[in-house]
Amino acid sequence: MTAQQRLNQVLELVIERGNVAIAEVSQALGVSTATARRDLNLLAEQRLVTRTHGGAAVLGTGYELPLQYKIVRQADAKQAIARAVADLVAPGDSVGLNGGTTTTEVARTLGSSERLGSTGAAAGVTIVTNALNIAYELSVREHVKIVVTGGVPRSQSYELVGPLVGSSLRDFSLDLAVLGVDGLTARFGATTVHEGEAEASRQIAAVAGRVVVATDATKLGRTTFARICPLERIDVLVTDVAPAPELAADLAAAGVDVVIA
């Protein structure tokens, strides 16, 4: 287990229990109390937890974790979702990607796809993104043309936000937009935790022929702060587990095709 993986597990433990003692962390992870104390101190220095006497507690329900602490969550599901999304992309397509762990996996899958990288006039794929980490990872892929929007980066997610996102997308026409979300319900549609990221995702969707929401089942039936778009704006939902019957009925009524990875 790497240090980053261990920190993720410590953070998950604090979030799950609300507060933990050093001895609990030590026992749960099979590490020394000195290591547990050092990990809690590091997370507290990064303002991810609050240090307490003999342990640590969560900061609050509305706190957004930085991207690097979300990467290992539902990793297998996100990789399966990414493969299913890649099947929706044809050689020569232009694809908009917002930021997040699931869309990062989608980007990696597109970047390593032999089908999209095959020779021919229509080979390759154009990726338009507001996520700096996605642009960086795909910049070395010869069959991928990268276009990065304007905007101001958020350190939590590496996403560019602000009015420059929309202005830089205004003259584009994308085949599809692939959006990662933090919540999906019938009442509020696709949502995320930050209003700037929601607006950026709306701008990407606005210039796309089809909108694909790629999210694991933990986000289904959940609502977060900022709306991206209603269900009716979504063409395809790619997820890892079939939605609950009520949500499935609402998705069908809205004309959303559901793909189970």
From TrEMBL:
Domain HTH deoR-type: 3-58
UniProt keyword list: DNA-binding, Transcription, Transcription regulation
MF (Gene Ontology): DNA binding; DNA-binding transcription factor activity
Membrane spanning stretches: none
InterPro entries linked: Carb_Metab_HTH_regulators, DeoR-like_C, DeoR_HTH, NagB/RpiA_transferase-like, Tscrpt_reg_HTH_DeoR_CS, WH-like_DNA-bd_sf, WH_DNA-bd_sf
Keyword DNA-binding in record: yes
Protein name, per record: Transcriptional regulator, DeoR family
The species this protein was found in: Kineococcus radiotolerans (strain ATCC BAA-149 / DSM 14245 / SRS30216)
Origin organism lineage: Bacteria, Bacillati, Actinomycetota, Actinomycetes, Kineosporiales
